[in-house]
Write a structure and sequence with these properties.
Blueprint: H1 5-27, H2 32-40, H3 42-67, H4 73-96, E1 111-114, E2 117-120, H5 121-131
Antiparallel strand pairs: 1-2
Length: 139
Protein backbone atom coordinates (compact mmCIF):
# COMPACT_ATOMS: atom_id res chain seq x y z
CA UNK A 1 0.00 0.00 0.00
CA UNK A 2 1.03 3.59 -0.52
CA UNK A 3 3.51 4.76 2.06
CA UNK A 4 1.89 8.19 2.56
CA UNK A 5 0.75 8.31 6.20
CA UNK A 6 -2.67 9.81 5.35
CA UNK A 7 -3.56 6.85 3.12
CA UNK A 8 -2.34 4.35 5.67
CA UNK A 9 -4.20 6.08 8.47
CA UNK A 10 -7.43 5.96 6.44
CA UNK A 11 -6.91 2.25 5.82
CA UNK A 12 -6.21 1.56 9.50
CA UNK A 13 -9.29 3.58 10.51
CA UNK A 14 -11.43 1.38 8.27
CA UNK A 15 -9.82 -1.80 9.61
CA UNK A 16 -10.56 -0.59 13.13
CA UNK A 17 -14.16 0.20 12.20
CA UNK A 18 -14.80 -3.24 10.64
CA UNK A 19 -13.43 -5.07 13.68
CA UNK A 20 -15.18 -2.69 16.10
CA UNK A 21 -18.52 -3.43 14.41
CA UNK A 22 -17.84 -7.15 14.78
CA UNK A 23 -17.25 -6.61 18.51
CA UNK A 24 -20.63 -4.89 18.73
CA UNK A 25 -22.35 -7.72 16.88
CA UNK A 26 -20.96 -10.38 19.20
CA UNK A 27 -21.55 -8.25 22.29
CA UNK A 28 -25.25 -8.10 21.39
CA UNK A 29 -25.52 -11.90 21.67
CA UNK A 30 -26.55 -12.49 25.27
CA UNK A 31 -26.59 -16.30 25.33
CA UNK A 32 -23.26 -18.19 25.09
CA UNK A 33 -25.06 -21.11 23.45
CA UNK A 34 -26.37 -18.84 20.69
CA UNK A 35 -22.91 -17.35 20.26
CA UNK A 36 -21.40 -20.82 19.89
CA UNK A 37 -24.06 -21.76 17.37
CA UNK A 38 -23.35 -18.62 15.34
CA UNK A 39 -19.57 -19.09 15.47
CA UNK A 40 -19.69 -22.75 14.53
CA UNK A 41 -22.08 -22.18 11.63
CA UNK A 42 -20.65 -21.97 8.13
CA UNK A 43 -21.57 -18.28 7.89
CA UNK A 44 -20.06 -17.54 11.31
CA UNK A 45 -16.82 -19.31 10.48
CA UNK A 46 -16.61 -17.47 7.16
CA UNK A 47 -17.20 -14.16 8.95
CA UNK A 48 -14.45 -14.80 11.50
CA UNK A 49 -12.03 -15.82 8.74
CA UNK A 50 -12.85 -12.62 6.84
CA UNK A 51 -12.25 -10.55 9.97
CA UNK A 52 -8.93 -12.31 10.44
CA UNK A 53 -7.97 -11.41 6.88
CA UNK A 54 -8.84 -7.78 7.58
CA UNK A 55 -6.66 -7.83 10.69
CA UNK A 56 -3.81 -9.36 8.67
CA UNK A 57 -3.81 -6.25 6.47
CA UNK A 58 -2.87 -4.20 9.53
CA UNK A 59 -0.03 -6.65 10.23
CA UNK A 60 1.24 -6.24 6.65
CA UNK A 61 1.15 -2.47 7.05
CA UNK A 62 3.03 -2.71 10.33
CA UNK A 63 5.66 -5.00 8.76
CA UNK A 64 6.02 -2.61 5.80
CA UNK A 65 6.54 0.36 8.08
CA UNK A 66 9.11 -1.56 10.08
CA UNK A 67 10.94 -2.74 6.94
CA UNK A 68 11.16 0.84 5.66
CA UNK A 69 12.08 2.14 9.11
CA UNK A 70 9.21 4.64 8.96
CA UNK A 71 8.21 6.05 12.31
CA UNK A 72 4.97 7.99 12.56
CA UNK A 73 3.16 8.55 15.85
CA UNK A 74 -0.29 8.67 14.24
CA UNK A 75 0.30 5.39 12.42
CA UNK A 76 1.64 3.75 15.57
CA UNK A 77 -1.43 4.97 17.46
CA UNK A 78 -3.78 3.59 14.77
CA UNK A 79 -1.96 0.25 14.74
CA UNK A 80 -2.28 0.09 18.51
CA UNK A 81 -6.02 0.84 18.30
CA UNK A 82 -6.47 -1.96 15.77
CA UNK A 83 -4.57 -4.38 18.02
CA UNK A 84 -6.74 -3.41 20.99
CA UNK A 85 -10.03 -3.93 19.17
CA UNK A 86 -8.75 -7.21 17.65
CA UNK A 87 -7.61 -8.53 21.04
CA UNK A 88 -10.98 -7.55 22.49
CA UNK A 89 -12.70 -9.55 19.77
CA UNK A 90 -10.45 -12.55 20.37
CA UNK A 91 -11.01 -12.55 24.10
CA UNK A 92 -14.74 -12.13 23.63
CA UNK A 93 -14.85 -15.04 21.20
CA UNK A 94 -12.76 -17.27 23.44
CA UNK A 95 -14.15 -16.32 26.85
CA UNK A 96 -17.51 -14.71 26.17
CA UNK A 97 -18.69 -17.45 23.85
CA UNK A 98 -16.69 -20.32 25.32
CA UNK A 99 -15.58 -21.31 21.84
CA UNK A 100 -12.56 -23.55 21.77
CA UNK A 101 -12.50 -23.46 18.00
CA UNK A 102 -11.30 -19.89 17.55
CA UNK A 103 -9.97 -19.39 14.07
CA UNK A 104 -7.03 -17.17 13.25
CA UNK A 105 -6.06 -17.31 9.61
CA UNK A 106 -2.74 -16.03 8.33
CA UNK A 107 -4.06 -15.46 4.83
CA UNK A 108 -2.31 -16.93 1.83
CA UNK A 109 -3.13 -14.02 -0.42
CA UNK A 110 -1.78 -14.28 -3.93
CA UNK A 111 -0.37 -11.09 -5.44
CA UNK A 112 -2.36 -9.11 -7.97
CA UNK A 113 -0.69 -6.88 -10.57
CA UNK A 114 -2.72 -3.80 -11.49
CA UNK A 115 -1.37 -0.90 -13.55
CA UNK A 116 2.19 -1.98 -12.88
CA UNK A 117 1.81 -2.24 -9.10
CA UNK A 118 1.72 -5.42 -7.03
CA UNK A 119 -0.92 -5.83 -4.32
CA UNK A 120 -1.97 -8.60 -1.94
CA UNK A 121 -5.40 -9.64 -3.20
CA UNK A 122 -6.92 -9.25 0.27
CA UNK A 123 -5.40 -5.79 0.70
CA UNK A 124 -6.63 -4.61 -2.70
CA UNK A 125 -10.09 -6.02 -2.05
CA UNK A 126 -10.35 -4.35 1.35
CA UNK A 127 -9.05 -1.04 0.00
CA UNK A 128 -11.53 -0.96 -2.88
CA UNK A 129 -14.50 -2.01 -0.75
CA UNK A 130 -13.81 -0.10 2.46
CA UNK A 131 -11.34 2.73 1.89
CA UNK A 132 -11.36 4.17 -1.64
CA UNK A 133 -12.45 3.25 -5.16
CA UNK A 134 -8.91 3.78 -6.48
CA UNK A 135 -5.98 1.59 -5.41
CA UNK A 136 -3.05 3.52 -3.93
CA UNK A 137 0.21 3.56 -5.84
CA UNK A 138 3.67 3.22 -4.35
CA UNK A 139 5.60 6.47 -4.59
Amino acid sequence: MKSEPAHLIRCLQQIHEVIRRANEIFADISQPSVCREVLLSEAGTTYILALSEVYQISRRLKDGLKARNLVNKQLQHRLHEVDLVWNNLLSFLVFGCSSSQMLVHSGNSHPVIFQGCCYHAGCANFWLNCVDCTLPRET
